[in-house]
Amino acid sequence: MTAVDQNSVIQPETILDFIDGVTQRRDTPEERVRQEILKSLVREYGYKKDQISVEFSIKFGSSRKGVDVAIWQPGVEHKQETIYIICECKDPKTKSKGKKDGVDQMISYAAACANVQYSMWTNGDELLAFRFLVDESGKRVHEAVPDLPYAGSDVPDDAPKFDQLRPAASDSLLYSFRRCHNYIAGNQGIKKEEAFLELLKIIFCKIQDERDSETPTFYITPSERHSPLGKKKCRKRIEKLFFSVKKSYETIFKADESIELTDDVLAYIVGQLQMYSLLESDVDIKGHAYETIVGSNLRGDKGQFFTPRNMCRMMVRMVDPAEDDIILDPAMGTCGFLVTAMNYVLEQIRESVGNSGRSEVAKQQALSRRKEDFLTHHIVGVDFDPILVRASKMNMVMNNDGTGQLFHANFLEPFAKFSADLRKALRLDSDDVKQNRACAEGHGVTAIMTNPPFGSKIPIDDPSILETFDLGHSWTYDDSSLDWKMDGKLATSRPPEILFIERCVRLLEPGKGVAAIVIPNGILGNPGLGYVRQWILRHAKVLASVDMHPDAFQPNVGVQTSVLVLRRWDAEEEAYCKDGTFQDYRIFMAICDHVGHDKRGQTTYVRDDEGYPIVREQTTAVTGIVASDKESEHSSKERVVDDETMKIADAFHDWRLDNGE
User: Fold this and answer.
1) Model confidence over 136-162: pLDDT tens digits?
2) Within 13 Å and on the Cβ side, how many CA atoms surround 86?
3) Beta strand pairing status for 85-89 and 63-71?
4) Core-most of 74, 316, 343, 462, by most CB within 10 Å?
């Protein structure tokens, strides 16, 4: 039995309180909302843990009630009459207008606390903030405000300044995006895909404002929120930003597109996003928030199931791209692989420049030059879905200064049908185009990470496509030679994942290019697909095969998959294998039994031998408001996610070094 310190375990079905690090609270949807708000209050808003109490008891009429979260000013004694902010956190199913647990309950609690100045009510999907004032008659009243104040300041009555914006921390941006999308869908009366595209426009306006405006124009003041004229002023500012967006991103937005949201809905969305600095927020936080909201709205009928971020990180680490690589995802979806690979390489560049011994000015110049070159020439993405191409370009905009080389194209079409820009990005010349493969050193791409569309429900049956693939033809098994033979007839159809394997291998630079591909397990085990396995072995070296847990893509789809890592043979190696002679070499193999979530998509945690969840001290560095360059480190005991994807990736990385790969 594994010995585990009792201080490092908690009772099953509990959450360790973020504020005191000791109290074990029942793991409920309501408690998860509260713990997320507590993390946000400390990491984003800048309040100290000793300013916050959870379940603080107040006298309410003839009884006592527990306020979910109470906040005091620094150094003030924790008493009912000195509370500065109260927060009520509810189950996502609880509605803000409910009489029992809605906003009215929070307002009544605030009325019992004479000096409360701000309050917040949230169920995760809704977030409402209020400020308490004394009107001209001496009566205490409340008004809606966009957000709670940052520690040591008040909610601004006019336009915020850029140095007052704050980077997102934890999952707060995900909650905000989700609230905005749900509000659009619920109050605009449009489908969820249309709601997402409207949200996309507003996010673009926010980034445009942060990037180009001298002072913020993406805002709505508290007074503007309460008048039709004020909301129209807000609309005018946002529409001016969107005009600039369309000029800056002509490949994403058409000139005649407009913001279709009503004044009321637009005012709400602006209020939810205005105090964030999206450009300063951590790339993982932005990526997780954005890809989650994209995936929940755009996945569906074309065999797409978007790749979890931990699998993206695992596959990028296994391919291990570098600054001089040409990196491709031919089925980019929401750009998860490309953003992960981009940040992986940018970190290498930052480390290289940081250790270069240059002056600080020279370091910044070198970093800027190398970053621009890499982002401009070394990232390539393709997708057949025009909406996903727009979504991917947005993801790239959120994570760097441009949209990259992202193309709307059918990756399975003959190379001759690719645009000139796409052929150039893939380093294909006329011979490559004629043969539908990268023919020589320096041609094609050097790193591929992809999760192609799967399924017999979306077969490829176009003869003009099938005829360009070996695997688009019919194959028969020859018992005498124990070999699969390709005959001259075209197959009636093929599932796309089979053709994607051939196209990816053909597009790799000979002898150098490496691909990590998600494939259904049937390709590795189905007797009738032996010709696919034979084709792979004759054209590429199998570096690794990782059998993923069936829950890897849950809760969206239950397909069983593996990750196959291949290096394309060079011409000499391919000629050696062409007649059926197989090279003898070692292959890294692993089974990934723990992917960090279950079939319902709920996070799973490491447990000790008796079934108790294990907790570890974790430190998170968070930048405060943009005006400050200081990072605050926040330590807390957190449950350890049961995820071994990166352990496998690191083991494979070491294996490659040991085996000269």
Assistant:
1) 888 889 988 888 998 988 887 788 888
2) 29
3) antiparallel
4) 316
